[in-house]
Amino acid sequence: MGNFTLFISNNKYATLGMILGLTLGYLHWYHVGCYWGTYPLSSECWVNCVAGLLFGGFIGSLCAKDKG
After folding, report:
1. Residue 61 · residue 25 · CB < 8 Å
2. Cys bridge to 17: 40, 51, 52, 56, which one at CB 3.0-4.6 A?
3. Three-class DSSP category at 44
4. Global confidence as pTM
5. Mean pLDDT of 3-28
6. Positive or negative CA dihedral for 61, 62, 67, 68?
7. Whole-angstrom Cα distance, residue 8 to residue 41?
8. Is the dihedral of CA 28, 16, 55, 50 positive or negative?
9. CA 30 to CA 49: how far, in whole Å?
């Protein structure tokens, strides 16, 4: 459990960005999603959530300050 806590504390901006991206991806699918279309980003919930998770983690890691 100590290693997990250390990992989260070292990557808190990326983790926060991933949680925020996941939430925003779900909200985009719920409110904007096109259920009958072929546009893959808005037709499937899991695609929106994974895209938001990855994009949020990337933005969060860019905002993190280097310690060294």
Report:
1. no
2. 56
3. coil
4. 0.80
5. 91
6. positive
7. 29
8. negative
9. 11
